[in-house]
Amino acid sequence: MKKLLLLPALVAAWLPGQAQTFVKVSAPSPTTVCYGRAEDMHTKLELPAAYLEQQRTGRRRSTAANIEVTYTGFSPEAQAAFQHAVEIWESLLVSPVTIHVQATWTPLGTGVLGSAGATAYYNDISGATRSGVSYPVALAEKITGQELNGANLPDINARFSSTFNWYYGTDGNVPAGKHDLVSVVLHELGHGLGFIASTSYSGGAGSYSIPPSIFSTYLENQAGSPLVNNKVFPNASTALGAQFTSGNVYFNSNLAKAVNGGQRPRIYAPATYSSGSSISHLNEATYTAGDINSLMTPSIGSAEAMHNPGPITLRMFDEMGWFNTAIRHTKLPDTETAQNYTVNASIISDGTITPGSVKLFYAIDNGPLTTVVMTSTGGTTYQGIIQNPGLNHTVSYYIAAADNETGRTYTAPAAFQPNVSTLARYSFVVGPDATAPVVSHKPITYVFADKLPYQILVQATDNVGVGVAQVEWTVNGTPRTPIQLTRQGTSNNFVGTFNTSAGPLVAGDVINYRVVVRDAAANANQTALPGSGTSVLNVVSFKPAQAAYSNNLNNPAPLDFVGEGFSVAQPTGFSNPAIHSDHAYSNDTTLIYQMLVPITVQSSPQVLSFDEVVLVEPGEPGSVFGTPDFYDYVVVEGSKDNGATWVPLADGYDSRLRPNWLAAWNSSQANSNSTAVGTADLFTPHSFGLQQKFAPGDVVRLRFRLFADPGSFGWGWAIDNVNVQVVTGVAADLKATGGLSLYPNPSTGLSHLRATFVKPASGLELLVRNSLGQVVSRQIVSAAAGQVDLPVDLSKLANGLYQVSLGSAADVISTKVLVQK
């Protein structure tokens, strides 16, 4: 199964003195798995009291969660069962934000009933129960009271097997031999709501996501040592792996212990790590079929109805934040003025706030804490005063509140951070400011002339506030009036436009620019991006269409390609420039490089060809392009409607396409990521027929696209010798039908050359040449129309890289093979 790895992807960092925003971290595709057991359990759990009360009265609680599901492939009876599970969860959860679920009915792996997970995770959220951890988006939205990932985007992605023998009833009377769909949906939604540890295991080493998931921060071994503790169990270590397979992992929650006889709930941690099951379920042997807490164990038997999450799971959820008292506060900024400071906070509780528990604690220069009971100013808002500390002091503070229902005390900042025992505090400085603004901006490398004026986005913050933000720029070396950037609302975003008010901007123009931000201090501090020099922005447009195109990429001019995440470069290990993606590429991203020369499709066979190295994450064995298990891929696409829609010239592919690529990917691993580096000897030719997707006369734009999901990552993609040509003869037919495929490659002696012939062919030569171009093997080939496999005997050749060609005279198509005995 795919590794669970959450790598930070900055969306908007919290910055002093501005409105609270959040940091989003990538999330895996659904990876927690529920397996079906063939045994008939003949058990049925009672429905939750909250659900029964809702059914009895016909009324929903005003604070009850609302779950909306988008169904793909479900029959009406399957959808009705799903909705019953949804209504159960709605009766048990409190959230002011709608929870969106994408549910797909599709064939899954052998024995898999369903799989699910959150579509995004967030940390640094306002009102968090713990700091330094990531929350699944549905829980993060509940805690913050905000829609974080877009109202039309799913918070949970879930898939359910379309091939199981399901029971669709909602009464819990599951007959022998059938699996209860309501129970499986209830289980999988539980994972998407937060019952997921985000751990992995490889080569004996155990790992958890960075930042750790809120669930994982409660995990302990039998002796009570937290597993998310680098000092005891380093991340990605065999010491942690031993804990994951110890059979003794527990969830240390005071709320859950209170409904479990004072004992920590036991987590599923079998001696053989099961990806998708281990650490993210309750222990099967502890909570057996018929136990009220059996829903979140790793497998579900036939004739087993569990329409109740159980008190342990519900209290674990409450501990993580599904029952919460959120303290929402905007941190006070640094200031150059000494005065009293008013601290405002909004306290939102799922219960009732303990009278007198809302307090402000502050200290001057790490001195003793002063306690201030905050007063209600109406509704949910409270206020406290920090007395004037005078100039040249640092003030630190935090806010606390408690609820009557759980007896817990909550703090802002959150009181817990894994591996840190000191209590977190906000702080601000009073006195002359010497801190420069913090500025973030991704340089723009190109803009199409027909898209002008073009908006530029800059993120800027400062401890005393931003005074001026602007863009200084020149066009073809001639200075233009600086662009003044304006703040968007209360966010940290500043925008402006590259415009034509001082003169036209046309294709071929080169803009040099830098961002300059000054703060609001009495003696302003300044930050410029870049720190030296300028960013280069090319104004481009598409060129006249051509029937043929050739570019070996060795000449820096003309500018025929534009995009993000790619450049023409010559990294170490390569003898000449080529198109290279970022090395290594980032998780959860899409990189695109467009060709500015459109191609007019001809009536004769027309082939796009290039040499390439593809070191991107391979999907699961047997996975098909377009399915979640295909993971990362590269694809060549064309558009005949000026880029409105794009069509793959052929299915996307990954490192599995060539055995030598896959071997390179697997040759060097770290935390399930490949650290292998591409080299020139991995270049392999690839051809695509344009007529397979487009008709003669179509004017087609072409682009290269690398897609990366949120899991493992690696070196990326390199492309050289890009050619579009009209070809004739056998080689043309072979190129138009996909070229040559040689396997196995590397070869230990005997390989097969696979090709598809449009019509019967005879008198062709199959040649093998060494690195000096010398022919070391020759055989005559005749073939019928259709796909054929040609044996290629390489057993007498020394180890090395060889070229294999098929054709006659100049009508030849080639590929490469590595002989390794």
Automatic annotation (TrEMBL):
Keywords: Signal. This is T9SS type A sorting domain-containing protein. One of its GO terms (molecular function) is metallopeptidase activity. NCBIfam families: Por_Secre_tail. SUPFAM superfamilies: Metalloproteases ('zincins'), catalytic domain. Residues 1-19 form the signal peptide. It comes from Hymenobacter metallicola.
